[in-house]
Amino acid sequence: MSVRLRTLTEADRPAVLELNEQEVFKLAPMDADRLEELHGWCHRFDVVEVDGGFGGFVIVFAPGSAYDGDYYRFFGERFTDFLYLDRIVLEKHVRRRGVGAFVYDELEAVAAEHGRMTLEVNVEPPNPPSLAFHEGRGYVEVGRGGPEGHVVSLMVKSLPS
């Protein structure tokens, strides 16, 4: 299996919107206008290509972005430098095959120049596999946020530069 990250293209947008909609219960909604906003604000908006086909996407933000996400602001109030993983979404047929670990390896290498990578993981409703994955990679909780019924663990991983 070959996996690579590549920059989002215009041709990828319908697949990104469709996959986001399929997983919207875990994510924030994203229509075409919101995709355009996020793409303009982000540090990276990459497609996860698996065996030459669309396997998912990932969006990350660096400090100083106009991004309006509450959890991005949380980390911005605590750290001067970080890379914030807003969302990683993989097609069902590529999950549990090492694709997520590959993406994290790539993003953590980029985040090393910022000293840390930050993100959130659902704890209400519980997501034990995701928590175990992140804890196993060295992420630690630095806070919690969200309304009742949709609480997240705000996590950070310090990275050597």
Overview of this structure, please?
This protein is α+β, with helices and mostly antiparallel strands and 161 residues long. It has a single domain, classed as Gcn5-related N-acetyltransferase (GNAT) (Aminopeptidase). Helices cover 32% and strands 32% of the residues. Strands 1-2-3-4-5-7-6 form a 7-stranded mixed beta sheet, sandwiched between helices. A hairpin with a 2-residue loop joins strand 2 and strand 3. The radius of gyration is 15 Å and the shape is globular. The mean pLDDT is 95.
Which secondary-structure class do the elements indicate? alpha+beta
Helix content: 25-40%
CATH class: Alpha Beta
What shape does the CA trace take? globular
Task: Write out key terms for the chains shown.
alpha+beta, Aminopeptidase, seven-stranded mixed sheet, 32% helix
In brief, what are we looking at here?
The protein contains five helices and seven strands, in the order βααββαβαβαββ. The chain is of the alpha+beta class.
Which helices and strands, and how do they pair?
Layout: E1 3-7, H1 13-22, H2 32-41, E2 44-50, E3 53-61, H3 70-78, E4 83-90, H4 99-111, E5 116-124, H5 128-136, E6 140-145, E7 151-158
Parallel strand pairs: 4-5
Antiparallel strand pairs: 1-2, 2-3, 3-4, 5-7, 6-7
